[in-house]
What we know:
Blueprint: E1 5-10, H1 21-30, E2 33-38, H2 43-55, E3 59-63, H3 75-85, E4 90-99, H4 107-124, E5 128-133, H5 136-145, E6 153-155, H6 162-170, E7 174-177, H7 187-195, E8 201-203, H8 225-236, H9 240-255
Parallel strand pairs: 1-2, 2-3, 3-4, 4-5, 5-6, 6-7, 7-8
Helix pairs in contact: 2-3, 8-9
The chain binds nickel (II) ion.
Residues 9, 11, 39, 95, 206 line the site of nickel (II) ion.
Amino acid sequence: MKKLLFDTHAHIDAAEFGKDLVEVWQRAQQAGVTRVINVAIDLPSARRAVDLANAHEGIYATVGVHPHFAKDFGPSQMQAMVELARQPRVVAIGETGLDFYRDRSPRDAQRQAFREQIRLARRLRLPVVIHDRNAHAETMAILKEEEAADVGGVWHCFSGDVRLAREVLAMGFFISFAGPLTYPKADSLREVARQVNLSRVLIETDCPYLTPQAHRGKRNEPAFVYYVAEALANIRGMTVERVAELTTANARRLFRIYD
Ligand code: NI
């Protein structure tokens, strides 16, 4: 039985992996995780993401600024991002969006950085990795106003309800499930997973955060995307292998990864 899992959202360039990234990547491959997208949160992490992607077959990069760091986003950063984003192993722009839960950057700065990154994605013909926390309606409104469906993307670590999921899919976007799908209290999220069209679903770890229930309290890592696949398989009454096959094919389609 061959599992070919794709962790579509990881932060393995983070300091948490500074000491043992080689072992982390080996464990991922042993668990059947053959592809990982390292998602940038700011310009330095975008540079690290591109370096990692250039150094390892199976690792891909995004370039973008997380809403937490939107306050630092300006014209000089944009210029550097454009150059980085043209690198061949960059598969998306992001993560970008709105975080009205932590509000680490002023909301206007978040909105501005989000809009400009959607425009960049459209200019470069790359999909967008979307971060939304406590900002469902406004995230959707900006995606529509900026015509993000033109390039598509993924609503990462989806936390909305069935209705929002349907709306997101109807616009042509994908949704992605992470560790919270395994949490005992996440019944409403499992209801979304029960009902969505699986041709538009991705899986991810968002490591080092959001560790699945089986290892909760410890650092998350790409190998643990298996638990997200397993949770989805249980919810849908499918095998883990079939979920792996479907979600990997979806990710390759969205990010146009053909190797
Ligand atoms: Ni993330």
